[in-house]
Amino acid sequence: MSRTCQVTGRSPGFGNAVSHSHRRTKRRFDVNIQSKRYYVPSLGRSITLRVSTRGIKVIDARGIDAVVADLQRRGEL
């Protein structure tokens, strides 16, 4: 699976690794993806989400029910 957050949609960024001699090689900036289980009262069951640490903060601020409603509207659940 790709390293993409289900809540925020963040995906890896790309850039250059610059050595001491200033040579540049391609590198990848991965997102800190965590697999996290949440109990959703409106569904009456638990769901597992692949979320970034910023996505966890979004869920804490908005609530799991609002986030799940957005995911269902987008067709991800």
Automatic annotation (TrEMBL):
The keyword Iron does not apply. Residues 1-26 are annotated as: Disordered. The keyword Ion transport does not apply. SUPFAM superfamilies: L28p-like. It holds the Pfam family Ribosomal_L28. Transmembrane segments: none annotated. Keywords: Ribonucleoprotein, Ribosomal protein. One of its GO terms (cellular component) is ribosome. Belongs to the bacterial ribosomal protein bL28 family. HAMAP family: Ribosomal_bL28. This is Large ribosomal subunit protein bL28. It comes from Nocardioides fonticola.
